[in-house]
Amino acid sequence: MTYAICPVSTAPVRNTSSHKSEMISQLLFGELVEVLELKGRQWVKVRCCDDNFVGWVSSNQLEIITPSEYEIYRDNFAFVFDFFHPAHANSHFMPLMVGCRLPNFDGIQFTIGENTFNFSGRAVYPQDAKRDPEILVKLAKMYLNVPFLWGGRSAMGIDAPGFVQVVCRMSGIQLPREAEEQIYSGDNVEFIDHALPGDLAYFENTRGRITHVGILLKDKQVIHAYGKVRIDDIDHFGIFNQELKRYTHKLRLIKRIFSPKQESKNDAAIKSVGEATQIELF
Fold this sequence. Notes:
Layout: E1 2-5, E2 10-14, E3 23-28, E4 32-39, E5 43-48, E6 54-58, E7 63-65, H1 67-75, E8 77-80, E9 84-88, E10 93-97, E11 101-103, E12 109-112, E13 115-118, E14 123-124, H2 133-142, E15 153-154, E16 157-158, H3 160-170, H4 179-182, E17 187-189, E18 200-204, E19 210-217, E20 221-226, E21 228-234, E22 238-241, E23 246-256, E24 269-270, E25 279-280
């Protein structure tokens, strides 16, 4: 097998091998893919290693890595937890944002290919991140007002399932890329009155297909990507937009992705990479 890493801030994943093709997802810096097919010198068909999502990426936005590098990068990395923070190389900066990965990060530096970067922002190893719904909600609120972008997964533009996937991933929960596949994760919550902050709400279109998802907050509110990442009211019918004075999404089901014992209301501290002491995440 051949593997590659994303060496740029974000790379579009397209439906076909053309820059005019629909962007169906994005790779973030440091994410890994399996190379499935080459088309000329310009395009690579890839399978994203985290969620098996398949699409086409421009070859100049990927860097081929060895099998041993793949294993190291897969098992040793930290998530960027700053909204924006550049990494510094000898001759240039690399703009990074929340959700990007720092492969084989030692607390100060990381290396991709021939480039060594210094990173002084907040970064968290996955094993140090608490699987806690309060942390999930705080991470989600970092994205408030990020514009909606079809296929987006970054702080510069994001769609609804991409928003939920990236935020959950930083909280230790792995979800598929599409909302209609995410519904198979977690346990059903029968009534919205029984829902808790951090539960995921899924919504259907007029044909009954799951097309939208958001993260439930307290006081019957939901944070989701619709025009931008925003907070709206929700009830057993769906999402009610106070600005439009109408329902915008029909509720289909609610899923709980945290077990009851992980729903404790503690002020969890997360160990920030490069820090000797525990600090508050927010």
